Amino acid sequence: MPSLSTTYLITGTLRGTGLEMMHRLLDGGAMVIAACRNLVKATNLCRLQESGLAQGRLRIVQLDVTDDVSITDTIKVVAEPHPRGIDVLIHNTGIADVKGYSKLLDHGRQTILHNINTNVVSPVIITQYFLPLLKTPSADKQLILMVASSSGVAEVYGISKVAVNKMFAELAIDLKDRDITVAGIHPG
């Protein structure tokens, strides 16, 4: 059960798993910072922010996980009202930029690189940028979670998710000495 003093930052919150996680965390009394790429499409988030469930504990911020300038801007927006930092960083952003259930050899370099960049590289970069906000003494332990599908329905997506699992294993080793726990979760 989340605590009133626990602050979560979740990427990829417009729908699906990210939106449901926010509902559950807010229901448990946590402070949630919802990061999404397109604020215009954030109607579900805005409704949730205005609902009685949020009670002033939901902030919506714009974040394109593939854009370093956007990441830097988001950190400034998050750090100012949260000087004690964040307790939990949840990487929920992911794409399956493919043409249905096609074969791996049907995809060009750009499609493959776009999937790898968004699903694998971006969580590493986001973690690098947000690490100073996780290092504040706001909790006994800070946590980084990666939400990943265990299915990998499309070949390019599946390859990126296998890489995500290895990447988070490496992050766990890198951050162990800083007392930051890294875990991958596979809902559903």
TrEMBL record:
<protein>
    <recommendedName>
        <fullName>NAD(P)-binding protein</fullName>
    </recommendedName>
</protein>
<dbReference type="InterPro" id="IPR051468">
    <property type="entry name" value="Fungal_SecMetab_SDRs"/>
</dbReference>
<dbReference type="InterPro" id="IPR036291">
    <property type="entry name" value="NAD(P)-bd_dom_sf"/>
</dbReference>
<dbReference type="GO" id="GO:0005737">
    <property type="term" value="C:cytoplasm"/>
</dbReference>
<dbReference type="GO" id="GO:0016491">
    <property type="term" value="F:oxidoreductase activity"/>
</dbReference>
<keyword id="KW-0560">Oxidoreductase</keyword>
<keyword id="KW-0521">NADP</keyword>
<dbReference type="InterPro" id="IPR002347">
    <property type="entry name" value="SDR_fam"/>
</dbReference>
<dbReference type="Pfam" id="PF00106">
    <property type="entry name" value="adh_short"/>
</dbReference>
<comment type="similarity">
    <text>Belongs to the short-chain dehydrogenases/reductases (SDR) family.</text>
</comment>
